[in-house]
Structure formats: structure tokens, C-alpha cells
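TEACHING EXERCISE
Course module: macromolecular assemblies
Task: Read the component lines below, then compare them to the predicted structure of the full complex.
Student: A.B.
Group: 4
Components provided:
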Amino acid sequence: MQKAPTQVKVVLLGDSGVGKSSLVLRFVADNFKNDADATIGASYMGKILQFNDKMIKFNIWDTAGQERYHSLAKMYYRDANAAIMVYDITKRDSFEGLKRWHKELQEFGPKDIVVTIAGNKEDLVETEAVPQEEAKEYSKSIGALYRKTSAKTNYGVEQVFRDIATKMCPDLEAQAPAARPSGTISLQPKPTPAGGKKKCC
Amino acid sequence: METPLFLRKKKLFFVFTSAAKPVWTRYGSETDLSTFIGSLAAILYKFQNYYTGIQDSLRYLRTADMYVVFLCTEALFYVCISKGKDSLESLYNQLRMLHTKVISTLTDNITTMLISRPSYDARNLMGGTHSALDYLIRTTAVSPSMLDAFMPVPMLAQHRSQIQLSFKSHLDDDLLYGFIMTSTSIIYRYCRKGENIHHIDTSLLFNMLASHSSLRSTMSWTPICLPNFSDKGFVYAYITFLQDSQVGLALLSDNSAAFKNLKACGDAIETEIRGLLPIIEESVKSIPYSVSICGIKEFKHFIYMTKAVDQYTMSGFTPSTRDFLPEMPIDIYKRTLRRYFAAYKLSNIPEFFKGNYTKIDTYKNEQIVALRTNEYVLFASLSSMLPAAAVVQLTTQLLRWLKSQEQDFFIMR
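Instructor-supplied answer key:
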């Protein structure tokens, strides 16, 4: 019997035009728009991913990148389980912007938030402005996961979310369906033991 | 010197700060325009210096084929250069709406901030709003903005009250305002008991929904400042579209943490009005409607507004989409609208308006009637061949018919 999925609240942060909404659209609806309109405020979408015998429901808050919305982002990441900080690999500024976002998360975000950095627009790798090594180094230095993505070509998108799930529930991948003792234990792993809210959105 | 490309456009709009820093421009890039905007600002200051001590500033400049209109607010300056035939009043209304939209985007805190730091570069703050501002300009250019009202779609009162019922049976303490709208029309509006909702705030929300396609693809929780509710901060809008439809539901709250509650409330309303979708879609398609529905063949066009609900309705043309029927081509409509403006103008002067105002203007190809009382405003266009007595009699007949249809034309309380 299927259990109710574990709820994971994910928030996307990053400068405007880096492709946050496109990543979400690709992940949730497997769709891509070339002339996507700027997000207003924040939009919400949900998607369930299946991991062997376990389901994770991602409640995704995609925030607007425009400067005037920065002060409002807190409202969305305050009680998030994970943050995806997105930059555009062809725009140096958008990478620099991550540092500000990270600082803010450290200051106001939940202590145990899982942070992932997504270097988006991998399809434009020819005009890359941020060396991958540097991005990886930075991710490591702040204890974040790192992945290159392309919402356009669907490169690495779902993997970003799988990474988050694995990091939050380390037993996910290891847990093979057959290995599970029948109906005895298998309590839902608690990735946020410090009383962090798991129900979200 | 060669004229820059942007200056050849018919209607230009500029927004800048008191330090002549560009904030927004309809055409061209703000950077290329800095010299031009600098000169506009210089003209303003010269005149302001001239008027030192008097609370006034330059209002407009006029040449043979051009108006340059200025709107000075505390910290932001708005300029429109129009080579079209728009009246001064309608250009002012457009500039005022533009200012309202800026406040709606940034709250009035921008004023405080720019007063203390006039050279602050506010361009980035307006990022991503170009399409909304442009849409605002396009729609206000053809709206009867002198009416202080908005236009809902006509719908049988019994259907509209079914929507009303679904709102009333799922109220939440956090719900301040609620709307059913598409990107082209407003279908229903709810307002918390004891609160009021201003028609400008209604139009601002509509403008946001109509001009940002990103709102249509997902569920959003979005801040918007409704200046007539409060210009000091944001209210929050939960916006979603009914599955597989163009019909949107917007629920607003003054509590920024109300998303969950409003979503639950929205889900319940959505389930209930799902059955009404075909009716809603049908009513959206019903505009623009032909003037002939009034059953009086002498009329070419009418606009009718009721103060009690701050709504208007008009035949033949829809300002929000600029859609028109063959009976009212856009150029003819624009001309008629200018004539309505002209006929209405005097009614704003207390000596001419003592609770009742009637004006009939005769042109070569039409007669314009403008009626204004404390309850309603009526504009109509009739054939120029009719004698005055007939015009009066037909107008009375039209008025009687419109009054009898109010329940279907408007969103009643």
C-alpha cells in the first residue's frame, strides 16, 4: 500500500532571467517556453517523484527574480526544506548574485535548509562566463550541492530534485523495495529533526 | 541633427525622478534617452522657478500637432508627448493611471525613498513591468476614463448571484477581495463586509492579470499594492486559473501568511463554480455587443455608468481588448469618445452641474448626448438628422431600458 508522500518545500532563488520558472516548468510539466514572461511575486507548483517504494511531494515556490521582490523572498524560504539557487552560466552577475542569496539564507533561513546550486542554460555552454570549477568550488565552500542544468534541453533538471531528496533522506537510494521488512518499521525518515515543519506551502 | 527613432512614435511616455534619472520609457532605452529626459526636466525646473511661491508647475505645452503633458507628483515626473488627437483630459488620465500603476508596483515608499535620495536609480525596481505599463497605456487610451468606473461583462443576474453564493458560502476571515476574471473581462467582484473596493484598485488587479501571461500557467501568491486600500504596503493575491480554462480566480488578503487559507477557500469556490464555466465563457464572448440590443434603431453607440456600483457598460467596443464590431470601427469610436469627453467637460464645473446636467452637441455626422446626475452618466451617439425633441424622447427611452437591464449589466451588491 502506498503511504502519503513526504512533503518537501522547495524554494527557487536567483536573479531575474536565469530560468527559475523554466526549470520548474520543465520539472513539473516537461514543457519549455522560449519567450517566458517574468514571474510576478511567486508561483506555486507541486510534483510527486517516486523513489523505489517511497514518494516525495515537492511543493515548489518559484520566486520572482526582480529586485523589488527580494525583500519578499523571506516569506517563501522561511520554512522551506530546500533552496535551489539558480544562476545563468552565461552571466557572471547572476553567479555573483548567489552570494547575496546565500548570505540571506544563512541569516534568515531555516538552519537545516538543503541548498543546491543550479548552473542553468547549459545548452549555451559555448558562451559560459563562469568556469564550472569555480562554481563547484563555491558550492563546496558553502556546503551546497551543485548541478548544471538546461531547462531547454531537459538536462539535469529532475536530477536537481532527486539530489535534494537523497540529501534529505539518505536512505532513499539504498532502500531497495525487496529489502524492506514487511510492514514493521520504515517510519518516514525525518530530515528536519529540529522541529522543522514538514508540511508546507 | 537626425531625429532619434523613438521620437517618431505617435505617443511617447516618460517617467523620471526629480534628479532627471529615467525610471521608465515606453519606447527606446532609458540610457539612450537620458539627454532628452534631462532637457524635459530642465524645462520643468525653469517653469517651477518662475512660479516660486505658487503651488503650481508646468502642465502642458502645445504645438500645432503635438501636446507635451506633464504630471508632477512629489518625487516622480510623468510626461506624455502625443501627436494624436487625444484630448488633454484623457492624456492626464493616462498619466495619472501610470502613476497609480507605479505606486501599485512599488508602494508609496518609493516616494519617500526618492525624496531622500533623488538620484537613486529606480529603473531596476520597475523590471519586468514593461508589458503591463504598455498594456495600461493601450487600454486607457480607449477607455471612458472620465467615468471613474470599470466595465464588467454582462451576465444574467441569476448566474452572477450563483457565483456570489459560492463566494459567500466559503468566506474566510483572511479574504479581503475576490475576483472572477479572464485576461479580457471582469466577471465577478467580492468585497469583505465593511470594506470598500475602489474601481482603480479593481482595474490595477485586472491589469496585472491581463498583462502577465506567467500568472496564467501556475498558481501564484503575489504582492500588489492597491493604493486606494493602502498605498503604504502590499496586499497579497492568490491567483489561479480554473483547470483547462481562461477563467481566473483571484483572492486577496491583507495577511501575507494567508496563502494556505485562501487556497483552501479558492479550491472550494472553484469546485462550486466549475459547473458555471460554460456560462462564464459564453458571457465573456458576448462583448462587444451590438447597440441594437437596446431596441432603438436611432442609436449608434452608448455608454452607461451607475455610480452606486462604479461600473459602466458600452456597446460596440471593448476597451480592455480593443475589440470592436463593424458598427463601431476603432477610429470612429475614438472620435466619438473624444466628443463624449468634450460634452462631459463642463459638468465638472460646479456652476454647470447642480445635480443634473444635459448636453447635446451636434456634429456633421452625429449628435452626442451627455447626461449626468448624481446616480448615473449616459453618453450616446445618434444620427445628426434628428430634431432635438426626438433626441430627448429617444434618450429617455434608452435610459429606461438601461435601468431595467442594470441587474444583468453590472455586478450588483
